[in-house]
Design brief:
By secondary structure, the protein is α/β, with parallel strands linked by helices. It contains 26 helices and 13 strands. The protein folds into 2 domains: 327 residues, no CATH class; 209 residues, Rossmann fold, CATH 3.40.50. It is 59% helix and 8% strand. The strands form 4 sheets. A 7-stranded mixed β-sheet has the order 1-2-4-3-6-8-10, sandwiched between helices. A two-stranded antiparallel ribbon has the order 5-7. A two-stranded antiparallel sheet has the order 9-11. Strand 1 and strand 2 form a beta hairpin. Helix 9 packs parallel to helix 12. The radius of gyration is 28 Å and the shape is elongated. The termini are far apart.
């Protein structure tokens, strides 16, 4: 296939926004807790441009060889191995080495598992299963970027067989027409699945090949049309039409980079301008005499395009390991720029020393031996790390802080309750049926981390508590909705659980003596809306939080005592490494969270909650910031052990003496008993 420098230029247009987006430039990190302001907030669409390019090039190569009768599956996969594996293996091996030096044992296990999944062409499936609410921030996952490579690799496995079968099983006089319509049908089917996926199953819609296949297939259909209908294509986009196509395509690709952000529903409809913009640029760039497309052939763009694969592989692990070292998700402006420069230097080295020698000069036998032996070696290393429970040069974490799973561990009896049929619920304290007093603790994960404190505060009081979790009390999906990761899926599920608990409380109000409400109140405010998800702001989010809580309380029995837990002082950074003395010396946050910083995050919401309490006679509130913090700092340790399991949750595996300290500081026992005795 004839080399087209404009395609390397297009690769540069794809990789630059991806790298800048991942660096979050610029970031005003002094406002911790505020939304980071990043240049090219929609830079992630560069991956979709790569998908179109891959579909175009792979289909061009396969179709030309199939029609010429020279196609070989062995030669096709040999080319893929030459192109993809050398730099990929080098990146994985280097990442495992860095992980041994920088990560703790459990973190190293997670890294090894992600390497293993990438070697199996299943990184997208792995991260679909691993990226959840309680997982480490995605910025701390050095292999996360392999999800897109897995999508392409799965496409490479599937697509040659589809094209070869289509060619072999169809009559030559109908082949072009059938291929065109079959390709169009496949694109429409996959695109329809993508539109459904981003709304109903956003994680699957983002990670899985069936929801992304249309982007690759559009590039493939373009290649087919340009080969089989070359004269018609040349005529249709010649002259001024070609120039216009190029500029329309550029606008389609680039505008979403500035308009979209991480809250946009994607891919779905929002990916259309990017994908078809790339198609127009590819089509116009393949025609002779188009002056505009020569802009993509300028030296710097072509040079960046040539190293784009290595740059993609290297930049994310580099950013991720640096964030792990600094224990924060954001990068300062100078840090981001420095890491981008270092990524480019390393990518150049990878391109010249690793990619090109194997791609252009190695023999076929060497390529296959290298692919097999390198893959086996990395698999053995990954399995060895997993079998050993993690390998690290760092001191082992204390047993109680070994992982978030351990720190979140808290035994609770789960059972079915009449009227709450959706799932088993956690009930702690005394028996629900025989207890003297019955309490419902309703909320999200913040209700879960308050549960051990509530249990300790009520110990020995013949009381039973029902924990209704994964249901923010103020989100009913009617008057208050949440827009999360471009989808309403969370809001819809929360609304169903909200209605179920509200209906149950109305039916069983005489059996419930108190309602406790807890939530990550401030964490939601930027996502809340009523009708138009685009009209969101922190100020409006606080108003909607109060609206949702007021509506809920107004629907309950006015005599039912309601107790609202305000948020704990929220660090917004991971502090678990503060367990080590050397980290405590180097990280000022380990000595305590600055009160001024905590107040900037919590005070507006706590003031709004206090105004809500004043409106209802049966409502009280616990201000955890006022109870736990001094005028200068908020503690991060209790009895010498770290207080937090992650950036915004308390541990749940507290010892009794730790619980006693926290319950005492919060005054929780006295407040709950006073409310139960009618002292609201």
């Amino acid at each position: 296939m004839k080399y087209r420098p404009d395609i390397d230029g297009l690769r540069a247009i794809a990789i630059i926004p991806v790298v800048v987006f991942h660096a979050s430039l610029p970031v005003f990190s002094s406002n911790v807790g505020e939304d980071a302001v990043g240049f090219l907030s929609g830079g992630f669409v560069g991956v979709d441009i790569f998908f179109v390019i891959s579909g175009f090039l792979i289909t061009s190569l396969i179709w030309q060889e199939v029609t010429a009768g020279t196609f070989s599956f062995l030669r096709f996969y040999e080319r893929r191995a030459r192109r993809l594996l050398p730099a990929l293996y080098a990146m994985m091996l280097t990442s495992l080495g860095l992980g041994v030096c920088l990560l703790y044992a459990d973190e190293m296990k997670a890294l090894a598992a992600s390497v293993f999944s990438a070697l199996c062409f299943a990184a997208n499936i792995h991260f679909f299963m691993e990226v959840n609410y309680f997982a480490s921030s995605v910025e701390f996952m050095p292999m996360l970027h392999n999800w897109s490579l897995a999508v392409e690799e799965q496409f490479y496995v599937l697509w040659p067989f589809v094209l070869f079968a289509g060619w072999s099983l169809t009559h030559k006089f109908k082949r072009r027409r059938l291929a065109f319509w079959a390709g169009g049908a496949l694109i429409l089917l996959s695109f329809g699945a993508s539109v459904w996926g981003v709304l109903s199953a956003p994680s699957a819609g983002f990670y899985f090949l069936p929801f992304r296949l249309w982007e690759l297939a559009v590039g493939g259909l373009l290649a087919f049309v340009m080969i089989e209908y070359e004269e018609a294509v040349t005529t249709s986009i010649s002259g001024w039409r070609g120039e216009l196509s190029f500029w329309v395509g550029c606008v389609g690709m680039c505008l979403p980079m500035f308009v979209l952000d991480h809250t946009s529903s994607f891919p779905g409809f929002h990916a259309l301008p990017v994908v078809f913009g790339a198609v127009l640029v590819l089509a116009s760039g393949g025609q002779p005499g188009h002056r505009s497309s020569r802009l993509l052939t300028v030296g710097p763009l072509v040079w960046i395009g040539k190293i784009s694969y290595s740059l993609y592989l290297i930049h994310w692990p580099l950013f991720s390991f640096f964030r792990i070292y600094r224990q924060r998700t954001y990068l300062l402006l100078w840090e981001g720029l420095s890491l981008i420069c270092l990524s480019i230097v390393l990518a150049v080295c990878s391109y010249h020393l690793i990619e090109n020698p194997v791609r252009y000069r190695a023999s076929r036998s060497f390529v296959f031996h290298f692919a097999a032996s390198g893959g086996v070696l990395l698999m053995l290393l990954s399995v060895g790390v997993l079998y050993a429970g993690g390998v690290s040069l760092r001191k082992p974490m204390p047993t109680y802080a070994r992982s978030h799973k351990v720190m979140w561990r808290w035994p609770c009896q789960e059972r079915l309750v009449k009227g709450l049929a959706s799932q088993k619920v956690c009930i702690f304290g005394e028996s629900w049926e025989t207890a003297k007093k019955r309490i419902v603790l309703w909320g999200d994960s913040h209700a879960e981390h308050y549960a051990p404190l509530v249990k300790r505060a009520l110990a020995g009081r013949d009381m039973s508590v029902l924990l209704w979790k994964r249901s923010p009390p103020h989100i009913d999906h009617i008057g208050v909705k949440r827009w999360l990761k471009g989808s309403l899926a969370f809001s819809q599920a929360a609304g169903k659980r909200h209605e179920e608990m509200l209906r149950w409380l109305r039916t069983h109000h005489r059996k419930v003596d108190m309602l406790l409400l807890a939530g990550a109140w401030t964490g939601y405010v930027k996502d809340l809306f009523v009708h138009n998800w685009r009209k969101r702001s922190r100020e409006r989010g606080r108003f909607l939080t109060m609206k949702g809580l007021s509506t809920l309380i107004g629907k309950l029995d006015a005599k039912l005592p309601v107790f609202i837990f305000a948020e704990i002082p929220r660090p917004n950074v991971r502090l678990v490494r503060c367990v080590f003395e050397d980290v405590r010396r180097s990280n000022p946050l380990c000595k305590g969270l600055p009160r001024a910083r905590i107040d900037r995050w919590h005070q507006p919401m706590n003031a709004a909650l206090q105004r809500l309490v004043m409106r209802f006679k049966n409502v009280r509130m616990l201000n955890a910031v006022e109870k736990l913090c001094s005028k200068q700092r908020c503690p991060v340790f209790v009895r010498g052990r770290i207080l937090y399991s992650d950036a915004n949750h308390l541990r749940r595996n507290f010892r009794k003496d730790e619980l006693d300290v926290l319950v005492g500081k919060l005054g929780l026992r006295e407040m709950l008993l006073q409310v139960l005795k009618g002292g609201v």
